[in-house]
Amino acid sequence: MTSSEARARLSELAALRITVFKEFPYIYDGSLDYEVKYLGRYLDSKTAMIFVAETEKAELVGMSTCQHMNDEMEEVKKPFITAGISTDSIFYFGESLLQPQFRGQGIGKKFFELRENYARSFPKIETTTFCAVDRPSTHPQRPSDYQPLDLFWNSRGYLKKENLKCYLQWQDMNESVETVKSLSFWVKQWPV
């Protein structure tokens, strides 16, 4: 999506984030106002891109975002800076969301391919990365049939870096206030 296309469908994109992030492991109790504001930062970034998946009737069923790490929130950049890793050569992948009935059809792989190709179009990019929330296997809201995406991410060349974590806060579906969550980074190094 171009910025103008995304701006015209910002509420729809925000609603998709709320719907998909309600699921475990995020169990996020989001608001449309916050989501519109959050997504608006991609429209103001010169390096951001939003990829979408739609039905033949132009119904939005998935989205995936990315931008240069230097344009990301301080909370996301901080673990790399603290570890002495320059963010100049890193491209950050934000959310990758897909309605449940459209999963397992290759769209998630396509989202990674599109973001990686876009990231590699920038000079000096050596690393692509994203973070995912840490939830224990004993979490009371974890569905019995839940399958973490670790194997999928490994198959795309991403490795979990336990030493790189960021901390964000949001309100879970079962909470009355926001609480801090840890998110671990998954990193893929590209040949220079």
Brief digest:
The chain is an alpha+beta fold and 192 residues long. The chain has helices at 3-8, 10-21, 32-44, 74-82, 107-120, 150-155; strands at 49-54, 60-68, 90-98, 127-133, 159-170, 179-189.
What do you see in this structure?
The protein is an alpha+beta fold. Strands 1-2-3-4-6-5 form a 6-stranded mixed sheet, sandwiched between helices. α2 crosses α3.
**What is the C-alpha radius of gyration, as a whole number of Å?**
16 Å
Report the β-strand fraction as a percent range: 25-35%
Proportion in helices: 25-40%
Structural class: alpha+beta
Overall average pLDDT: 95
Question: Which segments are poorly predicted (pLDDT under 50) over 5 or more consecutive residues?
Answer: none
CATH superfamily: Gcn5-related N-acetyltransferase (GNAT)
Task: State the shape.
Answer: globular
List keywords for this structure.
single chain, 192 residues, alpha+beta, Aminopeptidase, 6 strands, 31% helix, globular
Topology:
Elements: H1 3-8, H2 10-21, H3 32-44, E1 49-54, E2 60-68, H4 74-82, E3 90-98, H5 107-120, E4 127-133, H6 150-155, E5 159-170, E6 179-189
Parallel strand pairs: 3-4
Antiparallel strand pairs: 1-2, 2-3, 4-6, 5-6
